[in-house]
Design brief:
Elements: H1 8-16, H2 36-62, H3 69-98, H4 100-113, H5 126-164, H6 190-239, H7 247-296, H8 299-330, H9 333-338, H10 347-360, E1 367-368, E2 372-373, H11 376-383
Antiparallel strand pairs: 1-2
Helix pairs in contact: 1-6, 2-3, 2-6, 3-6, 3-7, 5-6, 5-8, 6-7, 6-8, 7-8, 7-10, 8-11
Amino acid sequence: MQLHEFMHYPSIGCRLVMMRRYEWNGSGMPRAHQSWLQRLWFQFGALNLIYQNVGLLIYLCLAEPPDELGAYIAQISETCSVLGLTLVGASNMWMMLHRRSDIESMLAELQQLYPAQGNHSRIYRIAHYYEKSTRLMRYTAIFFIFAYGYYNALPVAGLLYELLSESQQVTYKYQSDTWYPWLLVSDLHASASFMTSYLCQALSSLVGVAFIMASQFLLCFFITQMQLHFDGLANGLRLLDAARPGANEELKALLSYHSRLLRLANRINHIFNFTFLINFTTSTIAICMMGFAMVMIDVAAAFKYSVGLLAFLVFTLFICYNGTAFTSASDKLLPAAFYNNWYEGDLLYRKMLLFFMMRSSESRVLRAYKFTPVSMATYMAVSQ
């Protein structure tokens, strides 16, 4: 099993938006080439996602506030909740483009560390971590695909209901209250405006969901690799015999291996710092906004924003679950070193192992700019 096989699901989001896949030395994959049509699709989708944020802000500024205060607050909650989703998608897109060189450098270093075939059966559980991460990403991808289809099917279902109901006025309401320039054209038919706006928002939501999936699955890939290596390092310490000749050199190699893993962990945190902060901040606000909009507007809004509420809960859970898995994997090292037969080693061996234990005594935690830890405890705080 090769390293690039772990990258299957992170590549799905990139393919949806026609973004050039990540490349690194030693991957064994052919160089990616983009046609002009693929580049055009990517650029148009990215600009459409960015405009979606701008259009929602313009709508908030131009919309006439309702007479009732409750209705006005509900209107702001409805618009801001959608803005939260598009903002998360845009921030993940920025991270994946802006940090491209850092991500490819990380992939190249992980390729160097990846266990060679035939030498990992005793200490590296590659198949276990591959199946675990693949299952997690598969179920998450199924949810986001369902959420995308559900969100974009509701305006069509509402329009069909209004057309088939003779007593009801046709409103031509699309997914969200985004302002578009063609709304200024007075002689444009309402159906044409609806169709154009609907397609633009379907594309922007597709791009946003694709970048959210790609970013979160890339995080899962990195965390899975760190789990694999921390677990392998812990098994290597357990199997290390302090009384065996050459044990000091083996321990030195494990210490060097550990130092390299700690540098990789810091780089992962550096790459995802911005998205961690945006995701936690936006999720906390949007969950409140969506819950309020579901209660204050009508039944149709409750159905519409229930999937958005679930989306925020799911991708926040996905991030925090991976953060906790990373911390749990790093916490295996101290017990593995403690239960080593260090008492049979010489003084140098004991000093090196003591240094390793002191460095492993502090849990490794991913953080959003050193503020909020990425953990299940944070997820419970956001949910509450």
